[in-house]
Write a structure and sequence with these properties.
Structural class: alpha+beta
CATH topology of the largest domain: Jelly Rolls
CATH superfamily of the largest domain: Domain of unknown function DUF1214, C-terminal domain
Order of helices and strands: HEEEEEEEEHEHHHEEHEEEEEEEHE
Largest sheet: 5 strands, antiparallel
CATH architecture of the largest domain: Sandwich
Strand order of the largest sheet: 1-2-8-4-5
Number of domains: 3
Length: about 400
């Protein structure tokens, strides 16, 4: 249930911020505040609502020689769709009609119909900034959405919490489950348990017991599960599955908690190095025959986020990532060394340095967009981080 609550919480916060249904919001580069953002793309966002009488029309401009994807997710954080030239080679741009599955609607003749599994979807569009950010922003702003009718949009169930909700979050579990069915098979036993807890919390004594169990057992166990969320090599953890989770309910919840709106492995591969000490100087060296640029079809990036809320960390340079557009300096042998430290190390070229917090700990998130085969199939991991004197 925590995965669903996290999405409901974000839906409520977005609507309070000013989101309107079927109206796209184009963010300025870096203008997002959620956990583990990708900072080398221009983001656009929306909440999409469809029903039996209304579709949502997407007009997507022609985008070439630049990474982009129009990602849709459901109310559990599952990726349901990526519109781009890889998934729609015969119709990579132009007009699309997003429709409720099973609806019978009259649509524009030039629109490609795409069926959605539910009445609500979350949109996250990414356009690579690249060497010409202004062109990326123009493409971003040329993307439009509009509804063909007036879809009936149920209000989000009010779930509000900062860290972990207690038994009170189960009070409307039946309504939550009925309003957004889980599209993955095999959920029936889990749903039955959630409904049983919903019945139990009506009893004050049972509710107190449920609160104790959540705080004393479930919450610590979940935080421990984050540490073991995938294979670890060279100090980097690769999530065992991302974007489309099948029966791995725990990993879906981890993804929603640590970086809501994660995409699937067809689009991006993530690696995380957790709990680094901000006051230390750390280097990361890629040999000349395995540079990160050789491991992607599109681009790579690495960001530093705090180890508690997974938000980007303020620093005097306003530099929050390193990537293939950072003007990095390579060594004479063709290798590349990136540096992470509170102050620029003496041996470090200025452009190769990502500032870290002097006090506190942080995580590094490395992304490979359009990853090479050995990255996708798990044979490749980034090199080990090395602590310097």
């Amino acid at each position: 249930m925590l995965a669903r609550w996290l999405v409901l919480r974000q839906e409520r916060r977005d609507l309070e911020e000013g989101f309107q249904w079927n109206a796209i919001i184009h963010r300025a580069p870096g203008g997002v505040s959620w956990a583990n953002p990708n900072l080398d793309v221009a983001y656009s966002e929306a909440w999409i609502a469809v029903d039996e009488s209304s579709a949502t029309i997407l007009d997507l401009p022609k985008i070439e020689r630049r990474y982009y994807t129009f990602q849709l997710l459901n109310g559990w954080g599952e990726v349901t769709l990526n519109i781009n030239e890889r998934n729609f080679p015969e119709h990579p741009f132009g007009r699309f009609a997003l429709c409720l599955q099973g609806s019978n609607l009259e649509l524009p003749a030039d629109a490609l119909r795409i069926d959605l599994p539910g009445r609500k979807s979350r949109l996250l569009m990414r356009v690579e900034l690249g060497v010409d950010p202004d062109a990326a922003i123009q493409l971003q702003k040329a993307t439009t959405l509009h509804a063909t009718g007036n879809p009936r949009v149920p209000d989000p169930v009010p779930v509000d919490f900062e860290r972990f909700p207690g038994g009170e979050a189960f009070e409307r579990a039946n309504e939550i489950l009925d309003g957004e069915p889980d599209i993955n098979p095999g959920t029936e036993p889990l749903e039955a348990k959630a409904r049983a807890v919903a019945a139990a919390v009506r009893d004050p004594a049972e509710r107190a017991r449920i609160d104790r169990v959540i705080q004393a057992q479930a919450a610590p166990a979940f935080l421990d599960a984050i540490k073991g969320m995938g294979q670890s090599v060279n100090g980097w953890v690769r999530p065992r599955i991302i974007g489309n989770y099948g029966d791995d309910w725990q990993m879906r919840t981890i993804a929603d908690f640590t970086g809501i709106w994660a995409n699937n492995a067809h689009e991006v591969i993530y690696f995380v190095a957790r709990d680094n000490e901000g006051s230390k100087t750390i280097s990361l060296t890629f040999p000349a025959d395995a540079l990160p640029a050789q491991k992607v079809r599109y681009f790579w990036s690495v960001i530093a986020v705090d180890s508690r809320e997974f938000k980007v960390i303020a620093n005097p340079l306003d530099r929050f990532l390193l990537n293939n557009q950072s003007g990095l300096q390579y060594e004479s042998d063709g290798s590349l060394t990136l540096w992470f430290a509170p102050e620029k190390p003496e041996a470090c070229p200025e452009r190769n340095w990502l500032p870290t917090p002097r006090d506190g700990r942080y995580n590094l998130t490395f992304r490979f967009y359009g990853a090479a085969e050995d990255v996708v199939d798990g044979r490749y991991f980034p090199p080990a981080l090395v602590q310097r004197p």
